């Protein structure tokens, strides 16, 4: 159930951020030729984000600005697909979760803007003791040691009493 909820929430957030990425450039900056597309549009710290835009025109160049999240500037160069200029930047490891505006200024004077959503993905780390049958991976448990000592002592006392009783019964016959 939780996995389904997370998947649906992540899908809704990705759709919302993609929608805002495509709508914001044309609404915010009139006269732009194209918007700014970010892949992925939702990233974790340490991820590489690819930026595409048609605003720079065919064989266009430009400079991107990801300083809002601490990544600084990056270059855009002509891409392999149609009229796209492409650039890349890394999301810094210390970036907090949130939505950040990414800007591009092309050599032809045009501008484009898109939003990047940063989310912290928690990895599930194993916790607790490993039951391998060969011993523990953590220090001794004093309660278990004490219980074991009591069991051994009781067995020794019981065994001694039983041996003496048999020995004294064998001599009396």
What is the 3D form?
rod-shaped
Radius of gyration: 33 Å
Residue-averaged pLDDT, rounded? 75
Distance between the termini: 74 Å
Total number of beta strands: 8
Q: Identify the CATH homologous superfamily of the domain at 32-118.
A: Macroglobulin (MG2) domain
Q: Provide the helix percentage.
A: 25-40%
CATH class of the domain at 32-118: Mainly Beta
Per CATH, the architecture of the domain at 32-118 is Sandwich
Low-confidence stretches: 1-33
Structural class: alpha+beta
The main sheet orders its strands as 1-3-6-5-4-7-8-2
Reported by name, the CATH topology of the domain at 32-118 is Immunoglobulin-like
Strand content: 25-35%
Number of helices: 2
Largest sheet: 8 strands, mixed
Series of H and E elements: HEEEEEEEEH
Produce a short descriptive summary.
The chain has helices at residues 2-28, 142-171, and strands at residues 36-39, 42-43, 48-53, 62-65, 73-78, 85-90, 98-106, 111-118. It is an alpha+beta fold and 173 residues long.
Features:
173 residues; alpha+beta; Immunoglobulin-like; 8-stranded mixed beta sheet; 2 helices; disordered N terminus
Describe the structure.
This protein has an eight-stranded mixed sheet, with helices on one face. The N terminus is likely disordered. Strand 4 and strand 5 form a beta hairpin. It is an alpha+beta fold and 173 residues long. It has a domain of 87 residues: Immunoglobulin-like. 33% of the residues lie in helices and 26% in strands. The N and C termini lie far apart (74 Å). It is rod-shaped.
